[in-house]
Amino acid sequence: MIWSKPLAFPSSKKLVIAMTLISLHGCTTEPHTADKETTSASEHEEKKHVNLPTMKVYPSVVAQKITFPGKVNALPDCSVSVTSNISGKITSIRVVPGQSVTKGELIATLDDRQIRAQLLQAQAPLKTALNAVAQAKIALALAEKNLSRTQALFDKDIVAQKDVVAAQSQAELAKSQVEAAEAKVSEVRTAPSQINTQLAFTKIFSPLSGLVAHRYLNVGSAADPATPIVHVVNLNQVIVNANMPADSPSNPRVGDFAEITTVAEPGVVYRGQIKSVSPMVDATNNTVSIELLSKNDHLRLKEGQQVNVSISTSSIRAVLIPETSIVPGHDDPSELFVYVVKDGKVKLQKVVTATKSGDSIPVIKGLNSGDEIVSKGAYGVPDGAILDRGTAQR
Q: Can you name the CATH fold of 82-109+203-234?
């Protein structure tokens, strides 16, 4: 029988030492790898380069304003709903919305056939009465001529006194007949006159120069004094009714000027003069009613349009920066920042701003005179990124 040699195993002490060394080697290897990754990320961030426009900023005196909403309205006598004076069917309308009209221009006509027939009937008695007046005047002329001849004969003792008296009576009768005929003419002439007035009412004219804002009826529609046919407005000058916060530091007075702007026309400013300031506060919304008069030469302001009214309150010393340079805070969007150029890098700087002035934002805290800032395009740029130096704007 052959016996093999027993297998040799390391002692338990040696085994423990070997396993410990392996574990220590694994622990030292993992931190070394993490340090490498952190260093690589840091180096990558430091190597972030940006090419952005910059500008230097300086403080200046900036007028502060309070802005509140307003509404455009036409002047009281420059917005009219045009109606007919009589009832009738429309036979023509000569205007459309947006069309320019002048005062006295024909806008629409009504069916006048029935009125014209009435006029013809009323004119027949008038012709008869006029003929009667003409005949009475002829008779009066003959009677007066006969009286004159009879008086001459009487002066020559050719005729008697009674002939003169008879001639005088005849002349007076002829005269009274003329007066009666003329009275009849006046009487029968009243009816055609009234009908002519009705006939004139079948034509509707514009009461003012302006633009047709609305057209309510069409050909064939029934018109009456209570139903408007068109609406005409003149907006060469407009009234702006605004509600200023009662707690505003501004103290506007009649005759002062304010700025009027619209969302539809960015950068366009209308100048309005204050015409009235209410002495009472509207308790519902704690505002004071203000009325302004503004020119509207190009007719860009429309009746009923919402606008913004700005009134100066005070002046402050601030640094004006473009709105595009403002960056909202990452954690709190209400916080505002700008990127300031320092040592070739762009650094986030928290700022405090005032009310917007035109296209610029006044900064009252956070920037110093001569600071160089990124003027636009900085959103999302890492804090501390290296700026590839270009030419700074002034």
A: OB fold (Dihydrolipoamide Acetyltransferase, E2P) (2.40.50)
Q: Which helix (H) or strand (E) holds 62?
A: strand 59-74
299 phi and psi, to 5 degrees?
A: 55, 35
pLDDT tens readout for residues 40-67: 444 444 558 888 999 999 999 888 788 8
CATH of domain 49-61+317-387: 2.40.420.20
Tokens of 324: 């595009």
Are 209 and 234 within 8 A, CB to CB? yes
Alpha-carbon distance 122 to 199, whole Å? 13
Q: What average pLDDT score do residues 241-257 get?
A: 89
CB 70 within 8 A of CB 240: yes
Helices (H), the chain: 12-46, 113-155, 161-200
**318 token code pair:** 């601030």
Alpha-carbon distance of 338 to 361, in angstroms, equals: 12
- Specify the CATH superfamily of domain 67-76+236-315: Efflux pump adaptor protein, beta barrel domain (2.40.30.170)
Give the DSSP H/E element, type plus range, for residue 26.
helix 12-46
Q: Which residue from 278, 310, 270 is spatially nearest to 294, judged by alpha carbons?
A: 270
Confidence tier at 32 by pLDDT (50, 70, 90): very low
β-strand pairing of 257-261 with 270-282: antiparallel
Sign of the four-CA dihedral 383, 389, 391, 394: positive
At 99, give phi and psi (nearest 5°): -75, 140
Domain map (residue ranges) of the chain: 49-61+317-387, 67-76+236-315, 82-109+203-234, 112-201
- Find, among 256, 267, 263, 268, the residue nearest to 296 by Cα: 268
CA distances in angstroms from 104 to 91, 208, 210, 258, 353, listed in the order given: 19, 7, 11, 36, 56
pTM check: above 0.90: no
Q: Can you tell me the distance from the alpha carbon of 387 to that of 106, in angstroms, rounded to the nearest whole number?
A: 71
